[in-house]
Amino acid sequence: MNVRDPFGLHRKSALSILKTTASRAAVDLTERAVEASIHAIEKGKQAVDDFDMSFTVPKNVPSFSNPQRIVEDRVWGNTTVTSRGGKASSHANKNGGILGGVQDRVGSLFDDRNTLPMYKDKPYAYPPSQRARPIWRRKRTFVFLLLLLSLLYYFGAFGSHHDTATSSTPIWAWLKAGSESGKIADWSKRRERVVEAFTLSWDAYERYAWGYDQFHPISKKGEQMTPKGLGWIIVDALDTMILMNLTSRVTHARQWISTSLTYDQDQDVSTFETTIRMLGGLLSAHYISNEFPQLAPLAEDDPGAPGEDLYLEKAKDLADRIVSAFDSPSGVPYASVNIGKYEGLPAHDEGGASSTAETTTLQLEFKYLAKLTGEKYFWDKAEKVMEVVDNNGAEDGLVPIYINAKDGTFRGHNIRLGSRGDSYYEYLIKQYLQTNKQEPVYLEMWDETLRGVRKHLITYTEPSGFTIIGERPDGLKGPLSPKMDHLVCFMPGTIALAATGGLTEAEAKKLPTWTKKQEADMKLARELMQTCWGMYKWMATGLAAEITYFNIASPPLPESAPHNPPAEFDPDPEAKWRKDFTVHAQDTHNLQRPETVESLFYMWRITGDIKYREWGWEMFKSFMNHTAVQDGGGFTSLSNANKVPPVMRDNMESFWLVSPPFGKKEKKKRTSNYVSNQIFPIRRKH
Fold it and tell me: pTM for this structure?
């Protein structure tokens, strides 16, 4: 089988990868310590030989990434006392950078010797038997180990697995500045790079955590969220693999879904997350596999084949369980649902109230499922929620972030377009477009909302005049907080989508329905897109923080105030524009979120402005530079994205594998033909 190896990882030995990535002075220090350890071990072996207790050191030290390792494990696992010599072992490039592998193997000295440590992190060097060793030898070994452990501690090797600092030196030649020849970008090659990054991520998951809901790429292990797993990553990535035409990987995923995925589990799950990721993933896979049968073609899902409706059948089974969450007195779904007992469960905090965004971000999936199955109750349940929310009569269309499932009333006064508020607004216009503009109530609700955003939440930063959407934690009568979650960056693309109806801007402007309002909305979309991109440019890694704060006037400038932000972001560390942004220490993490890249995708497709595509490519390169895990581990989210090298979290978010592609425009369906839920494309009604 031909294995795609764009980054040369399969062709490189662990030694060559380490030589490429190691750039700190700690390398020399670590190597000297390891050599001293080996020297001590060899002396210990000689001492044991003097007592007629000999053993053989393997001549071929196993590679930590070679498939032969599986076979070797069976041999090594039967040896109760093992020693490895030679420099090769000290260069095995493990997950956490220079010291990560040494940490794992020294730590294993204290493990149970009758079993191998999990995921084949074999002991670095088991010492010979301690019997009859002279006291001076024991002291020297103890002192050496103490020194080595002290050095490892000093360089942070014993930090928790989710706070791992690694080298950010690029390991792929194409990432170097100016690597593209000529002034015109080759988007076909760039698209291939994106596919290659996906396959590297997927293959790492497949190798180390297949079937698990969570993947920790540095420690190379998986975890389940439910007793039997939900296929959190497999289902989430399914439609992306189909779009990328990765037939063999789709086949493997489909086989797991067919034979291993079951929802018959006594487990509480998030109503919202399970709907948008699992139900949405299955419905999207069903749509794409039927709409584009030439992509990742499989005989088993051809019309009339036994597996034709596998994705739809699984989606229906899951939805029948999730819909139990809607069985509240008001019709507003509970925050959680037990999928085995078909029972909705209120939240454990906020007096049992549900998140407003979460209760109103289920409609695209359930309405689409109603269309596919003919089961009207899916539609009715989802529609009832929107009716209850609308009947609350929120001022200027801006809703508090909590709603009571018992009586359908809002809880508290916190108004924001970030967490717990965001996708309520996003789904308004997408519901309108999903049914081909046959439900004008959602356009009315969207227009009211956008007027409210302009009136209460829009202001401008100082000194540069960037446009931001702030928050009103104490309600619309309270002060404006200059805080923007990364989640808010869904807004630029959503505003542009609403203004044009999914047509290109040039096409929409030719229609008699185009007015000054749409013109103003497109201007707002462009300004917010620039602000969101600035959230990336401000960070040391080029990857946005989870939350960004801004410097604003007191009182905040109204939406009508003149403003003229810079067109470009000066890379000078002391540039004036940098004074407008600030990120608090607790907010520097980057969770591989897709909101900004989705907005960039919409903005490029709608405006035709190539800069949005270039910004997306620059973002992709930053992810490649700063989140790649060595030794074929894939990519990870970051605990601190504002330092180089960054601090890694050791977790790959499932939505890392489902962000929108930046492929050839002429080969894609026009934007007006589909809408997406928070992650997946779903067909519009015609």
Answer: 0.75
